[in-house]
Design goal:
The structure holds two protein chains of two kinds. By secondary structure, chain A is of the alpha/beta class. Chain A is built from 17 helices and six strands. In chain A, α2 crosses α10. Chain B has two domains: 210 residues, Rossmann fold; 65 residues, Alpha-Beta Plaits, CATH 3.30.70.
């Protein structure tokens, strides 16, 4: 192999892609979207907080109203003296969003019933707030009925609120505070990003190979350079594009978020536990049943968990696994691309390659829940799934020997696959006419 | 000893034999025509010389020693199946291909500018390839094949896609490159170009070399020993008797054009002296050599 030729090929692959409009657009738009995802919930929260719902309360029980404390979600107005029906018909004119009618106390059931009327459906937040106020009022009423001295104090005393604080300990017994929800979110994000990167950029290799073949430029090229030089030059060139995009995204996201924070919205959010929880909740929506139950002080826990996470290790692991995983899949996609003349013909041939990639993504989903289960362990060892599954495991902590073994297996598999792909590629790129089958690929592999 | 020598080259793809013990000598500084019907194995042979395909057996020598990858990288090769990156700009693409041939960016720019001027296509430099017509793209491709001044040029169907004017331009360029000392292998179905350009040819049919040698030599060899005699007068040549027979005699207002077939071992001189001594006024006389086209068809169809 000639380094000079490979360098020329790499620079063409790199420059033509980086100068494309689509590259510029995705490079600049994605960070804006990412920043929006980070900042928008807080921004929206801020907008909503200003106008909490105005709730008109008609308290016919006489026990509820003292408990209706105003909060950021709702402001209560005592309109018990008014007739519910006239309020109902003039609700919005009077400037109220919701009319809450509380029935007189039911002496048998020892409770009240409440009905809410509103022009627009009420949100979960509002309903929860009202519910908890009403519950508290009724509990208080029932406690009073027992006519036991100091019962209220006793009840308060009995009520328990157990908190679990999680710590991870290292070999030397040092503790670090952790929040498993934060691990899940980080783990999922990592698995998704590396999956996207591998699928996107190795797919780009296949398109590139098909382009060279269908435009018939390939025979001119292979008379000047070796087919393997061409293949590896292309793979490395696109890898450089991917890394450029990755680092630009990180840099631009940081700059954008920092820029927006200076408008104080994001800054508020970071210091405000409630919106921080909202944000984590938003990120969490991606398909997990368990909702994140943040206890008081949750945001400080998130922050300290994040601070305790080994970001150096995560970034290094991401880069190593992305590069190796990409190289493996890119060389396989190059071989497939070489065997077809246009993209429509790739469906059948690329199945054996896309299926493990998808499988890896699904195994990674188990990793969020049980990072130490057998399927996840093997998924992080088998080279075709390991880049994605291991990244999902990393935030939970992976023993060094497993990392080393998994990377070694992946690297070795890449070498074998690259060798095999180069053999197929060498012959495939000059084959025209007949539609290629798996039998053909096998024949080319054996051909000297 | 030629610049390129193929010795007993065999190549088969599965059951199908593409080349069967093919031996060839391509002399230095000449234009060598590689002829043959479609599917005869020409492209396979060219790919073997270029080391794109590895033969099952046999050797290719370059200046007397086995050909190496380094030799191949110096060859200027215009494949039959050729194309350019559609989205790339013409100039950038030409630069890329020139650099892959080992030129530095500076050399490549200088030489390419000269060629673009010579073909009067300077204003194409910043156009995208997809904006060019097929013939225009072929011109760019020809330039990228020759820009690094290769000592050996392999041109597979260089005239396809060109209009007659541009085909003539390319023919002139090929001759000019030959004058500058390049050895050129030309694979084409255009027999007129073969007669005009080639010094030597080899005809491959069904994976064998059917005939090879100098173009003139081959044309004479396949001549039927016919001559053409042009004379004036009212008498017809058919009255003459001798070691020949008159195949046809066209009378165009007293100007006759006769095609005469000589018996084996006799020459045109005998016809001429017979005609002159018989009092015919001879205006023209020439040996009739067959067109390459006829030889090609004859050899290829005879084989079947």
């Amino acid at each position: 192999m000639k380094f000079r030729n490979i360098k020329t090929i790499i620079s063409r692959e790199y420059l033509t892609r980086v100068r494309k409009k689509s590259f510029l657009i995705t490079t600049f738009i994605v960070p804006i979207l990412l920043a929006a995802v980070c900042v928008l919930p807080a921004f929206i929260m801020g907008m909503i907080e200003d106008k909490g719902k105005q709730i008109a309360v008609v308290d016919q029980s006489g026990i509820v109203m003292p408990f209706m404390e105003n909060s950021s979600v709702a402001t209560y107005h005592d309109l018990s003296s008014d007739a519910p029906d006239s309020l109902k018909s003039h609700l919005s004119e009077l400037g109220y969003d919701v009319l809450l009618v509380v029935s007189p106390v039911d002496e048998v059931e020892r409770t009240v019933h409440a009905v809410s009327y509103s022009v627009k459906p009420i949100s979960m937040d509002v309903k929860d707030a009202v519910q908890s106020r009403l519950d508290e009022a009724v509990e208080e009423y029932r406690i009073g009925l027992y006519e036991i001295e100091d019962l209220k104090t006793i009840m308060d005393d009995v009520e328990s609120d157990v908190e679990i604080s999680s710590y991870v300990i290292d070999g030397e017994g040092n503790e670090a505070i952790s929040s498993s929800e934060v691990y899940m979110v980080v783990s999922m994000a990592l698995a998704m990003i590396i999956y996207m990167f591998i699928a996107l950029f190795s797919g780009m290799i296949m398109q590139g190979v098909i382009e060279e073949k269908s435009s018939r430029v390939v025979e001119v090229l292979v008379s000047s350079v070796k087919a393997t030089e061409l293949m590896f030059g292309k793979i490395i060139g696109v890898a450089c594009v991917a890394l450029t995009q990755f680092f630009l995204w990180i840099a631009l996201t940081v700059v954008l978020v920092a820029g927006i924070s200076s408008f104080s919205v994001f800054g508020n959010m970071m210091s405000d536990p409630e919106s921080m929880e909202q944000m984590m909740g938003m990120v969490n929506m991606g398909g997990m049943e368990e909702s994140i139950d943040m206890s008081s002080g949750g945001s400080s826990m998130i922050l300290s968990t994040l601070a305790n996470m080994n970001f150096g290790q995560i970034i290094i692991a991401f880069i190593i696994y992305f590069i190796l995983g990409y190289l493996l899949y890119a060389s396989l996609f190059a071989a497939i691309g070489s065997a077809v003349e246009n993209e429509a013909d790739t469906n059948q041939l690329q199945m054996p390659v896309t299926i493990p990639l998808l499988l890896a993504f699904f195994i990674a989903f188990y990793a969020f829940k049980s990072p130490d289960s057998a399927v996840v362990f093997w998924g992080s060892m088998i080279p075709f799934t390991s880049p994605i599954v291991m990244l999902a495991r990393i935030p939970f902590g992976v023993p060094v020997w497993e990392l080393v073994l998994s990377i070694a297996i992946l690297a070795l598999t890449f070498v074998v696959c690259a060798w095999a792909s180069a053999k197929i590629y060498r012959i495939g790129i000059l084959m025209f006419g007949k539609k290629t089958t798996f039998a053909d690929l096998w024949k080319w592999l054996k051909q000297k | 000893m030629g610049m390129i020598r193929c010795e007993d080259v065999c190549k088969s793809f599965g059951e199908k034999k593409a080349l069967d013990h093919v031996s060839l000598d391509i002399p230095e500084g000449k234009i060598f025509g590689l002829l043959g019907p479609n599917g005869a194995g020409k492209t396979t042979l060219i790919r073997i010389i270029n080391r794109i395909t590895i033969p099952n057996s046999g050797n290719v020598f370059f200046n007397g020693r086995p050909i190496t990858q380094e030799d191949v990288e110096k060859i200027g090769y215009l494949p039959e199946e050729r194309g350019l990156y559609r989205k790339m700009k013409v100039g950038e693409q030409a630069m890329y291909l020139a650099q892959l041939k080992g030129m530095t960016a500076k050399e490549a720019t200088r030489e390419l500018k000269l060629w673009f001027e010579r073909f009067s296509i300077e204003n194409w430099w910043n156009k995208r390839v997809e904006e060019l017509s097929k013939g225009m793209a072929q011109k760019v491709q020809f330039i990228t094949t020759v820009v690094h001044k290769p000592s050996l040029l392999i041109l597979d169907e260089p005239f396809s896609g060109f209009d007659p004017v541009n085909a003539q331009l390319i023919r002139e360029e090929i001759l000019r490159l030959k004058d500058e000392g390049a050895t050129i292998v030309l694979s084409t179905h255009n027999m007129e170009s073969v007669e005009e350009l080639c010094d030597n040819i080899a005809l491959i049919n069904r994976s064998h070399v059917v005939i090879s040698g100098g173009v003139d030599e081959i044309r004479h060899k396949y001549g039927n020993n016919n001559v053409e005699l042009i004379y004036q007068g009212n008498r017809s040549l058919t009255s003459l008797k001798g070691v020949f027979s008159v195949l046809s005699d066209n009378d165009d207002a007293g100007r006759h054009t006769a095609v005469i077939s000589l018996e084996d071992g006799h020459t045109g001189n005998e016809v001429l002296s017979e005609a002159i001594s018989s009092g015919f006024s001879v205006c023209g006389f020439k040996e009739l050599v067959p067109r390459m086209n006829d030889i090609f068809i004859k050899l290829v169809t005879e084989e079947v």
